[in-house]
Amino acid sequence: MKVKVALSRDTGTVSIGDLQLESGKTLRNVELAFERVGSIDNPAILVCHALTGTQNAVGSDEDPGYWAKLIHPGGYIDLEKFQVISFNVIGGCNGSTGPLSESPETGEPYQTSFPFVTIRDMVNAQKLALEQLGIHHLKAVVGGSLGGMQVLEWGICYPNAMDSLFPLAVTPYLNDYAIAFNNIARLAILQDPKWNNGHYSKDSIPEHGLSLARMIGMITYRSGDLFNERFGREQRGPVGVSHEEIAYEIESYLDYQGKKLTKRFDANSYLYLLKAMDTHDIGRERGGWMEAAENFQAPLYAFSYSGDLLFPTKEFKQLTDYLQNIGKASSFEEIETQFGHDGFLVEFEKWGHLIQEKLDHL
Question: What positions does the entry give for substrate binding (predicted)?
Fold first, then answer.
């Protein structure tokens, strides 16, 4: 089915000036790349993207965004009722200030001189960018994974700035199991000789390291049942010819996904965003996650996906249970899926209507 988007679609960058980071450092002349779709007279919904996502949540007819089947006229997030805004996060590589950007001090790309950023830094940058766009209140903030982390921080950093929060496929803090996978992915990039301490040229990127990092991620994003059902030990050729052979279809799939990412994503950005995810803990320097959760004012509608290795249901549900216990509006939905963590990117018919119902009753 071809997804139609609203005729009104604006893309570009917003300049927010200098940004004070949590680290105490100042990031100068910050720009955020954005997508804005729908009538500017409609209530605004902010969509926050995941690790390798971009601001193109809706996209165009020729190049649909990653949530185009969720967000369109008459859709679960209805562009006839709402305008949708999405930003490429700081530290990203799709137009926002990040390692690929030119440093005002040197006139050269930052690369690894780019300062470390946190989820809270990303949210603070988005708040300034929204103000530049003339938006001071949001109908909702929605996002999954890294985007879900931003949703939670939005609710705590700016509790009165929205009517509702929709965090998907996330938890109040990143657990050690997920940090371990992030560490392995980082090492894959750092140990690629072409990484060169982050000072690589466009013609000599650490392709092998970034590809391997992506493959590591892909294994955690989906369930073992899905992999087993989809590939069923299907072979592409003989086994035992070479240590470098790609003999099974699952190997070919991972190889393809790894190489595909290297064509559109920067290795240094990948490293910075993984590190930002590691910092995710809504209770950090706030007295713990329960004390931090008391700052939520907008209703919080949480969505978890069965088989999510990185963000388990039980760790997410404890947040909504606590909010309900202290009298704050919240709900929790676990979506049954074989896609595991990636459930928030597919099978919209299973859960999109739940978001639609909540938005319609706000």
Answer: 214, 342
